[in-house]
Structure formats: C-alpha cells, structure tokens
Amino acid sequence: MPEGTASHCPYCALQCAMSLTGGPAGRAGSVTIEGRMFPTNRGGLCKKGWTAAELLDAGDRIVHPLLKQPDGTFEETAWSDALDFIAARLRDSRERFGADSVAVFGGGGLTNEKAYQLGKFARLALGTTRIDYNGRFCMSSAAAAGNRAFGLDRGLPFPVEDLDQAETIVLFGSNVAETMPPFIAHLAGARQAGGLIVVDPRRSSTARLTDDGGGMHVQPAPGTDLALLLGLTHIVIAEGLANTDYVESRTTGFEALRVSTNAWWPERVQATTGVPVAQLRQFARRLANGAGTYILTGRGVEQHVDGTDTATAAINLALVLGLPGSEHSGYGTMTGQGNGQGGREHGQKCDQLPGYRKITDPDARAHVAKVWGVHPSLIPGPGVPAVELLAELGKPGKVRCLLVHGSNVVVSAPDVTAVKAGLQSLDLLIVCDFFFSETARFADVILPVTQWAEEEGTMTSLEGRVLRRRRALHPPLDVRNELWILRELALRLNAPSTYSTSPAEVFDELARASAGGIADYSGLSHDLLDTGIAAFWPFTPGSAGTPRLFRDRFAHADGRARLVAVKAHHGDGGPLAGNTLTLITGRLLEHYQSGAQTRRVPELQDARPNARLQIHPATADRLGIVADGPVTITNARGAVHAHAEITSSIRHDTVFLPFHYADEESANLLTESAVDPISAMPEFKRTIVSVQAGGSN
Ligand code: SF4
C-alpha cells in the first residue's frame, strides 16, 4: 500500500478508505487513488471510488465566482463583488418580505462541519425557518422509524464487520451490489449458509447473489412491502416463532401489534404481493431459526408515501424476533449519501438543532443558544421539509431567495418540472457547487467550492463512525471552502455569533452543541480522530465510542423499544388500469445520486451514457418495443425519453429507470410530490406510467 494522504471516498455512506498520493502541491492529474485497509472495505473500492480523482479537474469545473448577466450568460466576478451583491439582495429581501423569504437547501454529502455551520448560518445570520436538505429524499423514513421505535436513529447500530458472522441477512429493497460493491464481502458468511434473502421486485445484481444455494430472492409487486412485512410478522407470531422473553422484557406494544397483523394472513399477503405462501413461510421460518440474523432496509422500502410505516414494520419484525441489541443479530438501515448520517444530525433538517435535538424543545434551544452565544429567542422555530420548501419557491408571500449547497434538485427532487418553474420564479438563486450542474444553470450567482480531496473535515459513515476527510492537494486559486463563504456572508449580514473557517474549530463547536443530544459528538476532536481511533458516537474518552447500541436498553426513557402497530394503506392492491405499468426509480453501479459528479468521469459515463428503461420481454413484445430501441415513458406530469433494456429480471407489470440522468432522460419528470405524512419522504418507488415505442431520439 503506498504512503499517501489517508482519506475516504467522496461518494456513498460506506465511506471506503483510500490513500491519495500526488499532493499537496500537485493538481489532480498527479493524484493517484489506492484502496486502504479499513474494516468496512478491506482495501476494496468500486469503480466510482477508483476514478474519483477525475472529478478534481473535470472539464467544466467552476473555478471563479460567476454572475448571471441580463442576456442569461455567466461572467466571472471577484469574490468580494459576488458576496456584496448576495448580501445586499438577501438583506433587501428580508427587510421587504420577512426572514422566511430566504431559504437554504443543503446536502447529505457536506462534511459534518459544513452541515453544522449551514444550519447555524440559516438560523442566526438569515433568521429563517426555511432550511432543509436532500436527505429528505434518502434517509428520512428510516430515520423517523428508528426514532419512533428505538428513540434514536443511527443507520447501522453495529459495525459492518458484525455481519461477517451472520448466517441470515435480509436485504429489504437494497441493491448493494451496485450501490456499494465492497459491502458484498460482508454477506459471504450468510451466502455460504444459504441465508441471504433479498427482497426486490427486480432480479437485481444483489438478488442474483442468492443463486446457487446462496439464499432466496423474494419478488413482491412494487409498493406492497408493508403488506409483506405484516404478513411475515403474522406468520412469526402465529407459528410461535416470536422471542417472547425478549418481547416481554425489552419492548412495549406487542398486543396491539399482534392484533394489527391478524388481517394479513398468508393467502391475503400472496394475493397482494404476489409472493407465494410457501415462500412466505420459508422466509419467516428462516428468520426465526438462523443463528445470527440481521434485517437491513434500503431505499426500496423506504422511499414511499408509507415509507415510515414500512420501515417501522421491518423494525417490528426484528423486535418480535428479538434481534436489535442481541448478540450477533440486529436491525439496520443502509444509509445512502456519503454523509447521510452526519448530514441529518447537525441542524440541516427543518425541525432539528445540532445533536439531533428537536428545535421546539426549550431545553435544546437553550443549550444550543448558549453554545452560539445568543439568546434562545434568536433561534427561529421549525420550518417545512424539502418538498414543501421547494413548492414554496417563488409563490406569493413565500420563498424569494434560495441558497443551494451540495444539492442538484433539478435532477434529484420529485416532479422536477415544478421545481424548475419554482427556481425560475425566484428573485435570487445562489448555488455553491464545483460543477455547472443542472441546478446551477438556473442560478443568478454560482460560487465555486472545494472538493473532497481539497479540504479538511469529518464524515459520519453508515455505522455512525466519525471519519476524517483530509486534504491531499490545494484547490484551484479562486475556489473557496463553504465555511469561508458562510463566514464572509455572516459578516456582511452583521450576524450574531462567530463563524470560524477552521474545520477543527467548527468541529469542536459542533461537539459542544451536540453534547447531551441524541447524536452526541462530545469528547471527539480532529486531533483525536487523527490518532486513527475508531470513533462511533456516542463517544466516551478512552474508548472506541459505542460500536454496538441497544445492548442493555433502548434510548426511550423507559429503556424499551416501541412496537408500533401500522396499517398497509395499499390494501389489496389490484391490477393496474389499462396499459399502465409501475415505474421504479433507482441506481446504477456507475453513477451516484443526481449524476452531477459521475456523469463527468469518462470511464463511468462511457459505460452508462444514457437512461435505459428495464422492461420485461413479454411487456416489450406487447408494446412493440425492441431491444435498444427508443421508448417514451409518460404520465400526467411529463415524458421521459430512454432506450429499452429488455430483461426478464423485472416483473411484467413493472419497469425500472435510473434517476441519475438529466433533461429529457430525467426519471423525476414522472415522480410525484406526494410525501409520507411523518417523514416527508416523496414516493420514488411506485409511479404509474405508460410506455410507448419510439421517442425523440
Ligand atoms: Fe466505496 Fe461507496 Fe466509494 Fe464505491 S462509492 S468506493 S462503495 S464509498
């Protein structure tokens, strides 16, 4: 392994460890990436990680502040002019239309330090309640379910390595073979024991790992996951497979839960989900009899309008089996974005303050206000979640100015036609980015910011492990870190409190602000993390933090987990009307999130240059669609143009489209803005569409 700067991948929440050589004086052309030994990736990287250095000098990297001209073109401008312009416009908007006329939209890829500072800046410098972030589209349902059941939300409440000993692992709606390939190594034991169970309407790359005796692929109709989970819980209880000692000693709410599952007898579950009764029973019995059982959920079951209840049903099943907090067992959710965990802990969410505290809690407000050196009354109340915030853009009496940091909403948000209209009607859009993203096209001002290998900071992985991101090379001369931008704007706005530009100092403040909260970073520091300690929050000095949660108690005041009775809203489902099909959106191995980064890496883009619609051969035949031929996918919200990938890995009533692409290939032209009533998660996994042969290309 070469000597180099020890850091982590810029993409997903596995946060694979890597060494970067070639810095600090060199530019990207001289940077080499090698995988580094670490418990989660053991030296492995996926093709996204191996090619990440190419982001640093990508062709359309923005290296100067840009100001939109009256003719719609962008011109370079000096930082001081750009910041003066922004501050004057923000001040004017606040004075004329109130503080909530200015909004902030953050991202789950920002470092902990940036996420924290952005939340503080929004509340104190702008005085706005209008802040939320793209994690709403990713982790919000699982987070809400975890908080409800356990009193705490940490994606995996155990280290990834624990999975190595498992004999049964269930992946509900998670395609790790494409989203985080090095994770597959941790499934080897379960595969060898024939105990890998993958629940997915598609025969995904991960589902194929169950072949040849590796386990079982369960293929329910899209949107019926909740009924499936209720049915599995019904069988576990009815067949006497529940862990009654655990249920009695560590949970509350069992009787109501039992009654709620009565309506989901196996034959009804089969009729609703399409999963045969025999397979349902085999599935439930394996869960109860496997030595070392883990249930893991992903976006497939969480990105629904009933996503919180579905994740809750998965937790209920795990609790009835006695898994969470037990030896060699557990429940977890597979966090997606690189800092999806930390991004939701430090105050980017509209209803939270640092430490995962409720913004409506007077004690939380007093604690954070003291750290910030302000009176609690200066901290505004709760705002509105992402989809609602985007719906307010440009509306009378609502948001007129928007700052976007680390997010490409024009591709990643649902119903992007409405989002574009909102952005177009703003008085002022400021985008901090390193590329000319689809969202940046709408901006009035674009501020160029540092990339992952050019900055210091921390990220928190899917296991709740706080990791150091380290600088391997200097950014281009006129590029700045967001901490500097926020400080400069705060000064111009005469904001209360101070805004350090030192990531280590911001982390120390973050740790103080989080102390005593749910996500408690106190005791941690950059210096401590630089010693190489494995720091899982909550952290106790002299330890490695808390790798395994819930061993003795859950985080609710009485120490017990909550079994929450939930209902399947889709009922018995029923056939799709006419020629309509169910569209699932999802990810590919080569691309990450909105594709704003990976579409700029030649090896990745060449491998997957365009949107391809997966469709069953029988369905394609019926619709006159030929392999690689153009197709148009439509519904009331829009039309998407793609090419056909005819595959029997998908159900005949379902089609799949990756969401990484833009413009006429954007899957989110079709998705709707309806959200889960608890988490505000949009419905990304069940959209009714029509598909025709032919298209614009
Ligand atoms: Fe690892 Fe995820 Fe990066 Fe791939 S994208 S190298 S799985 S952190």
Question: What would you say this structure looks like, in words?
Answer:
Strands 5-4-18-17-16-6-7 form a 7-stranded mixed β-sheet, covered by helices on one side. The chain folds into 4 domains: 5-55, ADC-like domains (N-terminal domain of TfIIb), CATH 2.20.25.90; 66-137 and 339-536, Rossmann fold; 140-333, Dimethylsulfoxide Reductase, domain 2; 581-693, Barwin-like endoglucanases (Beta Barrel). The model is unreliable at 571-575 (pLDDT under 50). Strand 1 (5-8) and strand 2 (17-21) form a beta hairpin. It is 29% helix and 17% strand. Helix 2 packs across helix 19 (482-492). With 697 residues, it is an alpha/beta fold. The chain is globular and about 70 Å long. It binds iron/sulfur cluster.
Q: Distance between termini? A: 47 Å
- CATH level-two architecture of the largest domain: 3-Layer(aba) Sandwich
Number of strands: 28
Instruction: Provide the list of bound ligands, each named once.
Output: iron/sulfur cluster
Q: How are the strands ordered across the major sheet?
A: 5-4-18-17-16-6-7
What global shape is seen?
A: globular
Q: What is the radius of gyration computed over CA atoms, rounded to a whole number of angstroms?
A: 24 Å
GO cellular component, one term: membrane
GO biological process, one term: respiratory electron transport chain
InterPro entries: Asp_de-COase-like_dom_sf, MoPterin_dinucl-bd_dom, Mopterin_OxRdtase, Mopterin_OxRdtase_4Fe-4S_dom, Prok_molybdopt-oxidoreductase
GO molecular function: 4 iron, 4 sulfur cluster binding; metal ion binding; molybdopterin cofactor binding; NADH dehydrogenase activity
